[in-house]
Specification:
Layout: H1 2-7, E1 19-21, H2 27-40, E2 43-47, H3 53-68, H4 71-74, E3 88-91, E4 105-112, H5 129-154, H6 161-165, E5 172-180, E6 190-195, E7 201-206, E8 212-216, E9 219-222, E10 230-234, H7 236-241, E11 251-254, E12 261-269, E13 275-276, E14 295-296, H8 297-305
Parallel strand pairs: 1-2
Antiparallel strand pairs: 2-10, 3-4, 4-5, 5-12, 6-11, 7-10, 7-12, 8-9, 8-11, 13-14
Bound molecules: 2-oxoglutaric acid and fe (ii) ion (FE2).
2-oxoglutaric acid (AKG) binds next to strand 5, strand 7, strand 11 and strand 12.
């Protein structure tokens, strides 16, 4: 009975990931739906989230225009060969070096906080690129804080508990534009292999070519999205801060043999010098032993990227 009642909070999505309508005027119901989708799936789509469809359309337009530029112009924002950071344009596949790993070009740049933005890595091909990305950053931050607020309350904590656990106003938002050209090699059709994101929470939009899949109940499920929806992926740090209560969404991206797919995930993540672990309020008392070790985010990233033990 209790279970049946709980099930009502997320829209039935036959064969698909949960969809949460954020325009529902009953905020408690929205919060419960977000909590339930994060406990059971770790990946869901939000619709009617308040971010204007026109802004999303323009974001996709300026990013697509960047990837249409000649290689020499894209190289203007290339990631320097000796860089220790992710920011900049990189290409993985053209010379065959990416074989077996990924088949995509990437553009990474921080979009928040303003003090961490390096405009040197923002394309200047379109006069709108800056304005559109700055506005999207503000909107995504607001959406992210609302979702983290509901997730905090779902843990029985104050609304800002997860945001504070991640470093409050030092939380960074990293834009990644991924360009997956048509992939002729049928043995290598994974643009992004099976993984969970190592940051805290990810917000993804993509062009009309579908390819994202979520792993749920031991099978791959196509993630359907429309022009106005945003896919939310709960990532490692939310799982760890919640002491395992929230699930991180396992996912991968497939490729198309004929069409170009472009996706725009934004990764919310702590600053590298911030320590993240289970929130102290959740691990008091004998029944609540911490399930994860706290780590500097810098160390967590290094350990995970090198496949080393984390706990
Ligand atoms: O392109 C996609 O849909 C997924 C990309 C992804 O999972 C990632 O970059 O972490
Ligand atoms: Fe991912």
């Amino acid at each position: 009975m209790e279970m049946e009642k709980r099930k009502q909070h997320i829209a039935p999505a036959p064969g698909g990931i949960p969809v949460v309508d954020l325009s529902n005027s009953d905020e408690d119901e929205v919060a419960r739906a977000v909590v339930q989708a994060s406990e059971e799936w770790g990946v869901f789509q939000v619709v009617n989230h308040g971010i204007p469809t026109e802004l999303i359309r323009r974001l996709k337009e300026v990013g697509t225009e960047f990837f249409e530029l000649p290689e020499t112009e894209k190289e203007v924002v290339a990631r320097p060969a000796d860089s220790k950071d992710l920011e900049g344009y990189t290409t993985d596949y053209k010379d065959g070096k990416g074989r077996g790993k990924t088949w995509a070009d990437h553009l990474f740049h921080r979009i928040w906080p303003p003090s961490r933005i390096n405009y040197r890595f923002w394309p200047s091909n379109s006069p709108d690129y800056k304005e559109v990305n700055e506005e999207y950053a503000k909107q995504i931050k607001k959406l992210s804080e609302n979702i983290m607020g509901w997730l905090s309350e779902g843990l029985g904590l104050r609304r800002d508990a997860l945001k504070e656990g991640l470093g409050g106003e030092t939380v960074e938002y990293l834009m990644k534009v991924i360009f997956y050209p048509p992939c002729p090699d049928l043995d290598m059709l994974y643009g992004a292999p099976h993984h969970t994101d190592l940051n805290a929470i990810t917000f993804l939009i993509a062009n009309e070519v579908h390819g994202l899949q979520a792993f749920q109940d031991n099978k791959w499920i196509d993630v359907e999205y429309d022009d106005s929806g945003i896919v939310v992926i709960i990532a490692d740090q939310i799982r760890r801060m919640s002491n395992g209560r929230y699930k991180c969404g396992e996912h991968r991206a497939t490729m198309d043999t004929e069409k170009t797919r472009i996706s725009w995930p934004v990764f919310a993540e702590p600053n590298l010098d911030h320590v993240v672990g289970p929130l102290p309020e959740l691990i008091s008392g004998d029944d609540n032993a911490p399930k994860f070790k706290p780590h500097f985010y810098r160390d967590y990233k290094l350990l995970k990227m090198n496949g080393l033990p984390l706990d």
